[in-house]
Amino acid sequence: MAGYCKKVEINCDMGEGFGKWKMLTWSVVILQGPDEDLMKLMDYANIACGFHAGDPTTMIKTIRLAKEHGVKIGAHPGLQDLFGFGRRKMEIHPDDMYAMILYQVGALKAMLDAEGVPLNHIKPHGELFFYMQRDLEIMDAVLRACSVFKVPVVGSKGTEHQGAMCKKYGLEFVEEAYTDLQYNKQKKLLPASESKMATVEDIYARTMSIGLEDEVLDNEGVKSTVGFNG
Q1: Regarding predicted confidence, which is higher, 140 or 35?
Q2: pTM for the structure as a whole
Q3: What DSSP character marks residue 222?
Q4: How many Cβ atoms sit within 10 Å of the Cβ of residue 67?
Q5: How many CB atoms lie within 10 A of CB 81?
Q6: Record's SUPFAM superfamilies (predicted)?
Q7: Buried residues in 138-148 as b, exposed as e (16+ CB within 10 A)
Q8: What distance in Å separates the CA atoms of residue 72 and residue 65, rounded to the nearest whole number?
Q9: Is 201 helix (H, G, I), strand (E, B) or coil?
Q10: pLDDT at 147 over 90
Q11: Three-state SS at 7
Q12: Which of 138, 69, 133, 148 shows the shortest CA–CA distance to 102?
């Protein structure tokens, strides 16, 4: 219903540094805060699993930080591309992809078990997400690996085939609205390389537009309904 703001739950990608280096994502640059400052503002954290970012020490520190603030934790597996932050196109055999997802999520799950915290969800990172949309064999491999952990998979609105394939493996598919990236006129999410970098004002406006009007402003400046009715 237009004019009535839904409850907004904040989901952020966390633990995306490596060793002593901290990744300057939009959240750090714009909000001027590292994970320690941002964690208290969110409901869900997607923790990098070491392939596109993160390392064992960063992973367990981020788990403990999320636990301290009562934030639910999801795995954030990506392509094995530290140099490109998991945002470059790669060609990977589906069998290798299956093993890579098991490896990453399994590592995070072991750390969560050690800390007495449940795995809440799995959210593919960056180019891995878009690779899944282009190649159904890759999508099948990723979701087959996810099915081992029996938790929901988070993805963008408009990926109907991903939702259908989740059903094949008995997985819940949770649709997420992105306010730091843009959508095209087909209501499909654009990768960071094709999205204009968002400001705080952009993110606030997009959040209110989705929450109040169920609309997004696409990359051509046209408003359209996105269908977040929950």
Answers
A1: 140
A2: 0.86
A3: -
A4: 16
A5: 18
A6: Glycoside hydrolase/deacetylase
A7: bbbbbbbbbbe
A8: 11
A9: helix
A10: yes
A11: coil
A12: 148
User: What is the reported pLDDT for 191?
Assistant: 74
Number of helices and strands (H, E) in the chain?
8, 8
The rounded distance, in Å, linking the Cα atoms of 52 and 177 is 22
**What whole-number distance in Å separates Cα of residue 148 and Cα of residue 92?**
21
Domains within the chain, CATH numbers bracketed: 11-176 (3.20.20.370), 181-230 (no CATH)
Closest CA to 218 of 178, 170, 168, 169: 178
In the numeric block, which tokens belong to residue 20? 């002593």
* Strand ranges in the chain using DSSP code E only, listed in sequence order: 11-14, 44-48, 72-76, 119-122, 153-156, 173-176, 215-217, 223-225
Task: Report residue 5 as tokens.
Answer: 């703001």
What is the pLDDT at residue 23?
58
- What ranges make up the beta strands (E) of 140-210? 153-156, 173-176
For residue 126, the one-letter residue type is G
22 vs 6: CA distance, rounded Å: 33
pLDDT at 219 over 90: no
How far is it, in rounded angstroms, from Cα 153 to Cα 148? Answer: 12
Closest CA to 105 of 84, 121, 127, 90: 121
Residue 218 — φ and ψ, nearest 5°? -75, 180
Is 214 within 8 Å of 225 (Cβ atoms)? yes
Measured between alpha carbons, how far is 28 from 6 in angstroms, rounded to an integer?
26
Cα 51 to Cα 29, 67, 80, 86, 202: the distances in Å are: 22, 23, 4, 8, 30
Contact 93, 99 (CB under 8 A): no
